[in-house]
Sequence to fold (478 residues):
Amino acid sequence: MKRRVVGLAVSAAIGGFLFGFDSSVINGAVDSIQHNFALNAFVTGFIVAIALLGCALGAYLAGRLADRWGRLKVMLLGAVLFLVSSIGAGLAFSVWDLGLWRVIGGLGIGIASVVAPAYIAEIAPKRSRGGLASLQQLAITIGIFVALLSDALLAGTAGSASSQLWFGLEAWRWMFLVGVVPSVVYGILALTIPESPRYLLATGKRDEARAIFATLVPESEVDRQIADIERAIAEDKEGAKASLRGNRFGLKPIVWIGIILSIFQQFVGINVIFYYSTTLWRAVGFTESNSLLITVITSVTNVVVTIVAILLVDRVGRRPILLTGSVGMALSLGVMALSFAFATKVHGEVSLPDPWGPVALVAANVFVVCFGASWGPLVWVLLGEIFPSRIRGAALGVAASAQWIANFLVTVSFPPMSDFSLVFTYGMYAVFAALSFFFVFYKIPETKGMALEQAETLFTNAKGRGRGPQVRAGGDIV
Fold:
């Protein structure tokens, strides 16, 4: 049973792989796209970020589609959209054509970013839910690594990203075309794994749900888990929980918690590292090949620390890891801001004198470690477990959509902001990292070792002071 649950979680998490791959594949192609289409800094940032608008829309629609069609059909839709986008972006003939294909790919990635954590949370036993839900972030980090590694290999084989490789196409085009492979794999898996038993119960298919649960948990726990879920669904139908609307600025407080978690995850600037790091390291003196190598090493670090987070999340708990990560991110980003205070411009390009170049490089990797071991995976864990079951799909869609919009704002603003002041830019990210500490401290209760329905109740009833509501060993909320 444990192997089967892990297998299903890994299959669903391939959506996270697509997320990570699409997020970072443009890293090695940014300079080539800018030169090929003669773009200024703002348009370059917009083309990098435009996919995130598609992600936001896809995430917003995915929750509603998942509640209406089921998780698997929506996974398949995401795979098809990403497949079409990979081919279109690789064969783009203009910057606006490229932008269109990236928006279509963003729709697919947005869909995958919502459905994967929802599906994993709904099939995972409570004792291992945190670790299994973290597989989403692990898959994202592996997708980032594979994208950056393939970028480096393709650019190295061709001589540079702008050089022709196969069939008369430049290496940067093949960077996009490689995305065909994971999209096909994700589509095949979506056709072979079983539907979420919680979705089946919500749609009245009790026998089908029981048959699937019987393969995931011990027989003695099947009826109890089904009863718990049916009770939660019935309560959601009877009350206002079936709607996202509330008295606070039009949404329920629990939905706002998900939105703010998502915004903080992006406003610390993590994706600047994975979208622009090659360009950034070239600006401070590294060659293109060395910049790509540094970026690949950073992505490997991201994978390793995410695995560490998966091993710790169900032992240490959510809150301690998030709080520690916030402190580490704030300090490392502060050091990066300090490093760029000593930057000079040579022929219009940023240059860091010794020892500040190596200091900035180390600080950037420490930042990746702190993020990858905390906010990267744990936000997805919390988004998968804090929402009531009846609105989980829709609420996840809103939270993930907010995450993509925040990602877009950070991504599109970085090129012009870096031209203005890298000290201000990284200082701003450090401020958001510090604020994330206080948000977790006052608003996020601990959910380690709790059943999914208990975690939902805990967040719904949380007052947001100090340690928040706690749970006794027997499961009672106090």
